[in-house]
Design goal:
Glutathione S-transferase Yfyf (Class Pi), Chain A, domain 2; about 20% strand; six-stranded antiparallel β-sheet; 11 helices; binds magnesium ion; binds adenosine-5'-diphosphate; Rossmann fold; alpha/beta
Length: about 375
């Protein structure tokens, strides 16, 4: 993999290990930036900054990130070269094997890359919307009809809300006008709710298993769908909610109100989980997400673990390494401020890895990679 004028990196070439790659060094040296470059190759955009041109090294005109993906979908030995270039004032250019994409969306999903970063904590701490979006995002990656239904449903909710606001502003109330919206929303809501329930029924056991292995069974956690409407009763619920809808000028019931409850023991994780316990939960959640996708899409995503080792005890970190070593996971990138902690854990778990020292002056390989290159 190669980086040219990408964020703080002028020119970096990394001979990657197919298993684990460690970027080790002090804060602010550019470890996360290397992970972000991998994110660019997989997702055609950075994880952090949505404005591409701000990822060009200060004072330069363009950046280039390039890498080779080894495909492990059973189609034999094959590598794809992917390059992403951004020049000031120009359209982003993404190429696969020398050929430019006309639509970036055609690239997304081909080489799944999943980032696990400290900002993930919002998934536990914020309101229901982030968890609903998370669930919808995971399902949408392998179930396109679900995404279509979800978008149709959201559009209908907006239209219905506009109507409710119109009623309020004009001091009228005409239930008959709500009915056509309700009629179209009900089948979509029923189907979305059923799909979400099915997803969680499949996902939860995967999550439980990974979580148990990370904390060695010391904590019991769980997750469940929180919804106010029973299946088969959306039509009835919409009618019953009309008084509330009228008063609050918006649609107060439906699958746009669902949440996923995270628990530790019998209590909400948000209030009763320590920082380390919350971090373990998130880690298990993301790893389970990776496994779930791998199973549904038939391809193991590349995993980017950014600074996740703070506040995680040595036992859990060790268990994590053993989990990653399992064949269910693909290539991994890890950043850490401690130069020795991760390499020591990896040696103990007998996981092949490559490591680099990242400093203000550049990126220097520490261990010879045992094998060559993806991406
Ligand atoms: N476009 C850019 N040009 C130059 N430096 C940048 C650019 N974007 C970010 N940086 C620098 O990158 C550094 C942060 O790198 P980062 O990868 O987050 O460090 P860490 O090693 O702590 O993960 C900061 O010093 C920041 O100023
Ligand atoms: Mg960082």
């Amino acid at each position: 993999m190669q980086l040219l004028d990408f964020k703080n990196h002028e020119e970096v070439e990394l001979d990657l290990c197919p298993q684990v790659n460690c970027l080790l060094g002090d804060n602010g040296t550019g470890k996360t930036n290397v992970l972000d470059a991998v994110h660019y190759l997989g997702n055609a955009k950075g994880y952090f900054n949505p404005i591409d041109s701000q990822n060009i090294r200060h004072g330069r005109e363009a950046f280039l990130v390039e890498g080779a993906f080894a495909l492990d979908d059973g189609a034999g030995e094959q590598t794809d070269r992917v390059a992403c270039a951004v020049a000031k004032g120009q359209k982003k250019l993404l190429k696969r094997n020398g050929k430019a994409y006309s639509k970036l969306a055609d690239h997304v999903g081909r080489y799944p890359v999943v980032m696990i970063a400290p900002a993930d904590a919002e998934l536990i701490l914020d309101g229901s919307e982030v968890r609903r979006k998370w669930m919808d995002m995971v399902i949408s990656q392998y179930d396109r009809p679900y995404l279509d239904r979800l978008m149709q449903y959201q559009h209908l909710v907006q239209q219905r809300n506009n109507l409710l606001r119109f009623f309020a502003e004009n001091r009228v109330w005409d239930e008959g006008q709500l009915e056509p919206w309700d009629e179209r929303m009900v089948p979509l809501a029923e189907s979305i709710a059923a799909e979400r329930a099915r997803f969680l029924a499949e996902f939860t056991p995967e999550f439980d298993r990974i979580h148990t292995s990370l904390c060695k069974g010391r904590e019991s956690v769980g997750m469940s769908l929180s919804t106010k409407v029973k299946s088969g009763e959306f039509g009835k619920a919409l009618v019953e909610a009309r008084e509330d809808d009228r008063r609050l000028r918006r649609s107060t019931v439906g699958v746009h109100k669902d949440d996923v409850l995270f628990r530790i023991g019998d209590h909400p994780l948000k209030r009763f989980g320590s920082q380390g316990q919350q971090k373990t939960f998130l880690l298990a959640l993301r790893l389970a997400q990776v496994e779930h996708l791998a199973r549904r899409v038939g391809r193991r995503p590349i995993l980017l673990l950014d600074d996740i080792f703070d506040k995680i005890d040595a036992h859990r970190a060790g268990a994590l390494m053993s989990t990653l070593a399992g064949e269910r996971f693909g290539q991994v990138f890890i950043s850490d401020t401690d130069p020795e902690r991760i390499p020591a854990l990896l040696r103990d778990a007998e996981v092949p890895f490559a490591a680099w020292h990242v400093t203000q002056d550049g990126v220097v390989a520490i261990t010879e990679p045992s094998n060559t290159s993806t991406p």
